[in-house]
Amino acid sequence: MQKLTASLGLRSAIFVVISVILGSGVFKKVAMMAATLQSPLLVLLCWVLAGVISLAGALCTAEMAGMFPNSGGEYFYFQKVYNRFFAYIYGWANFVVLKTASIAALAYIFAQSFNSIVPLPAFSFNHKATGGELIDNLSVKLLASFLLVLLTYINYKGIQYAEKLSRIMTVLMLSAAAVIVVAGFSAPMGRFSNLTTPSIHADHSWTYWQIIKAITIASLGAFWGYEGWNCVGLIGEEIKNPKRNLPLSLGIGTLIIILVYVLLNLVYLYVLPIDSIIEMSKHPNQIAAVEVMKVVWGKWGELFVAVLILVTTFNATNSTILTSARLFYAMARDNNFYKPAAIIHPTFKTPSVALLLQGIWSVLLIWSGTFDQLTDMLIFSAFIFYGATALAVILMRKRVPNEPRFYKVFAYPFTPIFFLLFCTLLITVTLQNQPKEALSGLALIATGIPFYFYWKRKEG
């Protein structure tokens, strides 16, 4: 059986974790969260809780990754703990929506941000029958598609090229985030009272259950910001000393992201009162970080954040392409996917066909215009499988208690139980409040069932 070459050390693995997670969410989700929660303290609490919960999930994944350092991450663990069918459904969900829709959305946000700095030519193709445009935002979609083609090619040429690009971009992003934090807390218009003053429209009669429900709904935005903390497990074969470096990179990378996210949101709420941030939620094209830095530095601040969003979305797109293709490669290697996706390029040592298939489907999602709807389903669907990972930790502790584990999850069994309970809460609340998106996501994942039996029959 062909295997990928181990070439990434601990530092590189940490950069991969940070680069996949740190995308556009932290710059724009605070407005919608503020509109839901009506309180700066609750918004900050939501980001902290989402970070702690993500860290709990990352630590559960770290134990499994240390036991089974292989390409495919959860796909590989789920085969060991559950069965081949459940592992396949996880992989299929990632192909049709979880990873590819994320890649499409990130590339599209990059193109939108570029268009806001350097206006692209406006093309319009009118559809005579409907009187509307046949293709909306043609220039933006062309640029997003070009970005995916470019980054897929870079990853095709070798993981070292993609990882080096990711490392440079990550250093730039963290440096820029530090500049925003220092500039924001140095701004004369900032007020610590902004952090404790709720909206003038806040409902002070909320019960504890209403507060929990609101935080859970708002946390969907925060979790989109934290999404991707499990990514490094997908490239387990390509990490040196993986039983040590996989768990360490997951924990260290996630902790760094939590610190960055909480500090950035503190700055937003310190500089602007919450009602100003809530107002942004009524204007989808307004981005909280841009508006805050516009107040602090004027037009230069606006440009600074716009360029930063370009860098972060570029980097997150690159890193997600890098890691996700290894999942589809692992599935094909097990005859659970299109068989040529298991091919490793003889020169570049990359899963070349898996990268190509992932790129084609992601570009199709851009042109279909459905990736926004798909990302609404993403967090709900993802937490079904995240919960399964936490349960896997408990099951493996029962089944093989003496199995060597380089890393054991902190505060076992509290940590996996805590994370599993939250996953259950989030899934339940989402089903109650957004049943259409939740059930549509499940139906989309279920489309993979016929393919499973088709590939299984071919294998037989």
Brief summary:
The chain has 17 helices and two strands. It is mainly α.
Notes on the protein architecture:
The chain has one domain: Amino acid/polyamine transporter I, CATH 1.20.1740. Helix content is 72%, strand content 1%. It has helices at residues 10-21, 25-37, 40-67, 74-81, 84-117, 138-156, 159-186, 208-226, 242-271, 274-280, 288-297, 299-333, 352-368, 371-399, 414-433, 435-446, 449-459, and strands at residues 126-127, 132-133. A hairpin with a 4-residue loop joins strand 1 (126-127) and strand 2.
- Following the backbone from N to C, one meets helices and strands in this order, namely HHHHHEEHHHHHHHHHHHH
Question: Could you say how many structural domains there are in total?
Answer: 1
Largest sheet: 2 strands, antiparallel
Question: CATH superfamily assignment?
Answer: Amino acid/polyamine transporter I
Distance between the termini: 18 Å
Overall body shape = globular
Amount of beta strand: under 5%
How many helical elements? 17
SSE class: mainly alpha
Radius of gyration computed on alpha carbons: 22 Å
Main CATH class: Mainly Alpha
| Helix content percent band | over 70%
pLDDT averaged residue by residue:
85
Total beta strands: 2
CATH architecture descriptor name: Up-down Bundle
| Unreliable runs | 129-134
